[in-house]
Structure prediction request, 315 residues.
Amino acid sequence: MHRHVPAARTLSALALLAIVATPALAQHAPARQAAQPAEQAYPPGVRPERVTISRMLKPITADFNNHTLRSVMDFIAQQTGAELEVLWVDQRTGMGLDPEQQVTLKAQNMPALTVLERVLAKTEDGFGGRNNWQMTTWGAMQVGPTSRLNRSNRVQVYDINDLLLVIPDYPEVPTIDLQQALQSSQGGGAQSPFQDNNNNNNTEQPNRDEQAQEIIDIIQDLVEPEHWVENPSASIRHFRGTIIVRAPDYVHRGIAGYPYWPTQRLTHIIDGKRYITMGIDTGISTIDGFGQQPVSAVVGGRIISSNPADPGGGG
Prediction:
């Protein structure tokens, strides 16, 4: 014999069961995190490239003992907060850094950029392949083999008119005939007392194109010499007092440096002597933390120290 249960009572029981079961299910469900505001990667009004390089100049201490290259790059990025764009090897190009390559290196309070350059030198393939770094237009530091970096070229025009300026040199100057000068002063004649003995007025001035070619040869010999030979897309030419260079960013860095490099140059003249001080630009510095430092003050004729171990005294 089946007992009839009213529909209303059945719905109430199901509702009660759902209420009781809800907390149990909630205990196993992952808690949903509230959306956090995105951190400002670069201060407003400051070039992103300048901020990245400033962060890479931060001193770090590292002890890599057979660490993978990927973990080393992650460590540098975490310690500095800089945006590193590492060009890992891929199947499409077949070129790039090996993330599993072992790195052993010790660095004590060394700028992160120096550590990065030492790591890149250690991970070169040994068959002529070189590693380097360069800046992107969006502020990231691109790291990888030069064969991959060479794919990002830009054109830059450099004014070299000041290097092409030639100041004439006259080694022989006119002489003065003192006797003729005295006669001229006494009205004895109007002949000029100067005797022109300069026979080198026809000195040939160097050709501007030849001078520009010398500058180009110096650049190709001293700034990434392998690049101009191995990279068919690289070009440098002279045009009306300028040189036009088509090359990757790291080559332009070797030619003229970065105008946004985060350093300050302070010139002081003391007792007629010139002193130049180079330092980090504090305009984009950040506070890493606070520390306590004991201080002293004179109160009522006594020296009072904030350090309990040194209460001070005296009158």
Summary: The first strand starts at residue 59 and ends at 68. The chain is about 30% helix and 25% strand.
